[in-house]
Structures are given as structure tokens and as C-alpha cells.
Design a protein that fits this description.
The structure is a single chain. With 113 residues, the protein is mainly α. It folds into two domains: 43 residues, no CATH class; 68 residues. The two termini are 34 Å apart. 13% of the residues are buried. Pfam families: PMEI. This is Pectinesterase inhibitor domain-containing protein.
């Protein structure tokens, strides 16, 4: 969803997403535009970075909870099952993301001081 805040964040999104095959300008607009803090952030890349970290944390937390729920409900009933192995692998990856997030946010905040 593109919001009225798009003009304010468009230059930021063009800088970080322009030409990137993994992170498009539109993805940036959708993500940052979903957070009301972007409307007041202007060209402050630190603020936008903190917003991005918060969005990533929320997404990873939600995804990790869904994976945990699938495992608890028997997604892949035994250790040899491919589904169980895949879910455990995803669980480990998302757990790693969440463990690193405080450090990411802290590094962005520390950079500004």
C-alpha cells in the first residue's frame, strides 16, 4: 500500500533500493510507508534504519512463532521427515536473526552518538 508519505521517503528508497535485485524501491516504499514514524524522518537514514530494524524484528518474530506453531502441531512428525528438518532449519535461522537484532539496533543507535 502506498501512502501519502511516499514523497517524503521516495529519495531514501531510491538510494537504498535503486538497482538492488533483492530490495526494490517499491519494497522500501511499502515497508517504510507502513510505519508512521517515516513521515517525520525526512532524509535521516539512521531513523529509517531503526524503523527497518523494528520492521524486521516484528516480521521475524511473527514468522518464528508460526514455525514454532507448525512444529508443535506436528509439522513433520518424526526426525527423518523432510518437513520436520526444514522447519527446524527455518527455526534456527529465524532464531539467529532475532538474537542478532538487538546488536543491529544498538549499532545504529551508537553510530549517532
Amino acid at each position: 500500500m502506498v501512502t501519502a508519505n511516499v514523497p517524503a521517503i521516495l529519495p531514501v528508497c531510491k538510494t537504498v533500493g535503486g538497482g538492488n535485485p533483492f530490495f526494490s524501491v517499491q519494497f522500501c516504499l511499502d515497508a517504510l510507508g507502513s510505519d508512521p514514524r517515516s513521515a517525520d524522518a525526512g532524509m535521516n537514514y539512521r531513523t529509517h534504519s531503526l524503523i527497518a530494524v523494528d520492521l524486521l524484528t516484528a516480521n521475524a518474530t511473527s514468522t518464528a512463532a508460526k514455525i514454532e506453531s507448525l512444529i508443535r502441531r506436528g509439522g513433520g512428525r518424526d526426525d527423518d521427515d523432510a518437513t520436520a528438518r526444514c522447519l527446524r532449519s527455518c527455526q534456527a535461522l529465524y532464531s539467529g536473526i532475532l538474537q542478532r537484532q538487538p546488536g543491529s539496533k544498538g549499532a545504529i543507535q551508537d553510530e549517532g552518538q
